[in-house]
Amino acid sequence: MSDDAPREEGARRGLTRRSLFKGAGAAAAAGAVFRSLDASAKDDVPAGPRTQGPGKAKLTLQVNGQSREVQAEPRETLLEVLRLPLDLTGAKPVCNRGQCGACTVWLDGTPVYACSVLAVEAEGRKVTTVEGLGNPDDMHAVQSAFVEKDALQCGFCTSGLVMSAAWAVGKHGPDLSEEQARAACSGNLCRCGTYPHVVEAAIAAAKTAKKGG
Amino acid sequence: MKAFQFVRPRSSTEAAQGLADSADARVHSGGCDLLDRMKERIEEPAVLVSLCDAEGLGDVRIEEDGSIWIGARVTLAQLAESDVVRRFLPTLGEAAGLAASPQLRHRATIAGNLAQHTRCGYYRVKSFPCLKRGGDSCPVRADGGVQDTAGIFGNAACASAHPSSLAPVLGSLDAEIAIRDAKTLRFVAFADFWAAPAKGRASDTILKSGEVIEAVRLPARDAKQHVGFAEIRQKKAFDWALVSCAVRYETDAEGRVTQARAWLGSVAPAPYRATKAEAALVGKAVTDEVAVKVGDAALADATPLAGTTYKVQLAKVALKRALAAAREKA
User: Fold this and answer.
1) What pLDDT shows up at residue A2?
2) Has domain B226-328 been given CATH number 2.60.120.620?
3) ipTM
């Protein structure tokens, strides 16, 4: 948001040591960054805001009920970290701009675009991918209903649509209406146009669900 | 995206300090727009100062004086579902609930919605020249320029349009923006929050380096005031507004308007206050006929490009629909 501010003379990229002594608040603010920029000055710096990167650092993510450790840079999105180091390839990279829905996962139980969340932000939060919803031997009601209702063609959007539909089923339970199902899936694009079957599958799955389940 | 350092202040004051201390930092919150810009490499900040761990920015609350305080990090999904918003600010909840998609509404924040940059396709693609990115001219205005997202007001130098559909609602409700720097918290009237396009100025707000939006504050609203919102777009869901409109008015005992606010979105580089619509409303009872005259008055000064003449009519229709909604909604 500071896009247009004049660049301060002599200011360097990143926070500076000078900031440390600007005031009480500033002293607290700059500590951690200061340490990461200037290893020679590990004096009595009070803990400031946590900083990560720009290089790789250890992250601990809670994914599908398991604690997973990865090395990642702050610029790596949740989608990138899920797919490469964690090998969870259910969430698909398609537009990479939050415009298609193929990478939909749940963050603390609500659907988000994993391409638009930084992996570092997901620390300490519950991440659920389509792999965490069910597997071929033990499918979630929505996954079974997608098979039953033929709710996919090429399949590229499917894991994202399953996450959105399953969220709607969990939120609205057996009373899930067609309108609610459509609204819940409105952030997922399907090139093959399977939408009517997706909505049918969501409603069929909802009938077997308990509210909030 | 180019590599950056991710800083996680615990408060907005710490965030403001962090922004002030770096020559090349951006505020990060939902990241919906910022990360897209960084992926396109039209911005390559060295530092993101994230509000993800900052405390006290995620609440909607009613203050002692009846004003409503909406923390910077409140999401569009929270706005759409908040009881306080639904009861006291129904048009804000409506606009928030219609915006984007569920996935984006869970991430997009009220502050980011205001601070987002234009959707202009030339601005968004680095290989095109663009006034906002330091170029000499605006390609939208050139012969053969793609003008779909262009504005119809204030477009002499740059034909961008501010895309927020929440912004006209906040304008119509006389919102104030609470801005934090490292030392102070100040309040800026909604109309004064915007900066005109200029060469090299990507942002449309007055925010300076070292400033962060802390909240949006809405004055207590008399329950007798009428409010209405309308948005016109190509698709029913998951689409940007072609034009959005929010109105608010009060009437006397005879039903004549005594005071009015009318704001349009997606028509100018900043949310656009239609003062001529407001003037045309005062003293009249709001009927369909009056609404048509209000639309004509509001759009009389429009300067559409060849590719956006249709937006003049859309804006008139949006005003008419917002006024029709307001008649129902006290």
Assistant:
1) 42
2) no
3) 0.95
Where does the pLDDT of residue A45 fall: very low under 50, low under 70, confident under 90, or very high at 90 and above? low
A6 occurs within a structural domain:
no
What residues are paired with B243 via a beta bridge? Answer: B232
Distance CA B246, CA B172 (A): 6
Question: What range does the domain containing A81 cover?
Answer: 57-132
Give A49's contacts in chain B (Cβ within 8 Å): 7-10, 14, 18, 53
* Sequence spans of domains, chain B: 60-115+161-218, 226-328
Find out whether B205 and B167 touch, Cβ atoms under 8 Å: no
Say yes or no: domain B60-115+161-218 is CATH 3.30.465.10.
yes
Subunit contact A15:B50, Cβ cutoff 8 A: no
Distance CA A176, CA A145 (A): 14
What tens digit of pLDDT does each residue of A57-75 get?
Answer: 999 999 999 999 999 999 9
Per-residue pLDDT reduced to its tens digit, B166-177: 999 999 999 999
| CB-CB under 8 Å, B3 with A75 | yes
Contact predicate B219/B69, CB 8 Å: no
Under 8 Å CB pairs connecting chains A and B tally to 184
Size of chain B in residues: 330
Q: Which residue in A has a C-alpha nearest to residue B13's C-alpha?
A: A25
Note whether B203 contacts A3, CB cutoff 8 Å. yes
